[in-house]
Q: What sequence folds into this?
């Protein structure tokens, strides 16, 4: 079984601020740092650091070749990372004194995916392989349709949640990995965790759902099972990659044959470590660090 993450790669420009900038306000930042990120690359990094051999597919501009170096450093298979004309995707991230963040995203190379490139990538995979997706690249609906026709297991993090997802046949998704905001959006406005998963399962009864709940922990649900996991409390420094760390470690737990309860506990520890550090990919822990905490 192979794991493919077809996802975004962004250069993150991170500004430390006292509070999130308000409309019409000018605020001096207390510092600026540059990190490699993007939900896709963050999740590939989490998978790789958790010990999962993962192929990353996506497009970068000529300013993004640091991703190829990082892929080698983290043991991410870069066979399907393509350099294209123009700029890579990038983000402007504010991180406030409480470690909370807000993100402005520019698509760049992430939004220039062609169907020919999709076909080229998917030709290397087969039935039973895992495909992980987010919503920071274009042609998501085509990728889902083609992967489903091959019999791949599709794991979807529907973030950011926007109208592009309306084009996607969600019934082809094997597992949804989402936070409480995205859960509310996909469920039509529900806010209670149990009602969120009830609504999603009513539409997609064969799906598995992994719902992260911020300070309230996380929840897993399918048509036969439901369980919760609390957080491991740490001093939050930067929450940017918390959800991506959780996603990567959840899939790692599945591949390791762990129970859902064991997997959620491992994810909670990994995410706790991630939020205690700065940056996206640099904050994601290796499995050895998580095992020590376990």
A:
């Amino acid at each position: 079984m192979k794991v493919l993450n077809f996802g975004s790669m962004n250069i993150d420009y991170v500004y430390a601020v006292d509070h999130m900038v308000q409309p019409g306000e000018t605020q001096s930042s207390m510092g600026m740092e540059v990190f490699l990120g993007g939900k896709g690359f963050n999740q590939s990094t989490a998978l790789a650091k958790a010990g999962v051999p993962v192929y990353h597919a996506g497009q970068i501009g000529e300013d993004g070749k640091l991703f190829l170096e990082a892929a080698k450093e983290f043991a991410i298979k870069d066979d399907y990372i393509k350099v294209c004309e123009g700029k890579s995707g990038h983000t402007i991230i504010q991180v406030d004194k409480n470690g909370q963040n807000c993100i402005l995203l520019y698509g760049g190379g992430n939004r220039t995916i062609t169907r020919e490139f999709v076909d080229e990538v998917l030709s290397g995979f087969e039935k039973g392989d895992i495909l992980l997706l987010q919503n920071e690249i274009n042609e998501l609906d085509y990728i889902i349709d083609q992967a489903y026709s091959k019999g791949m297991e599709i794991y979807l993090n529907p973030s950011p949640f926007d109208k592009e997802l309306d084009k996607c046949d969600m019934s082809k998704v094997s597992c949804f990995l989402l936070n409480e905001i995205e859960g509310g959006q996909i469920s039509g406005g529900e806010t209670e965790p149990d009602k969120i998963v009830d609504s999603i399962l009513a539409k997609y009864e064969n799906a598995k759902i992994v719902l992260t709940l911020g300070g309230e922990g996380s929840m897993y649900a399918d048509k036969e099972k439901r369980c919760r996991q609390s957080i491991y409390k740490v001093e939050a420094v930067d929450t940017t990659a918390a959800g991506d760390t959780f996603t990567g470690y959840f899939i790692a737990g599945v591949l390791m044959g762990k129970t859902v309860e064991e997997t959620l506990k491992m994810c909670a520890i990994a995410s706790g470590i991630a939020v205690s550090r700065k940056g996206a990919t640099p904050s994601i822990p290796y499995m050895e660090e998580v095992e020590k905490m376990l």
Summary: The chain has one domain: 3-9+37-88+108-293. The chain has a mean pLDDT of 95.
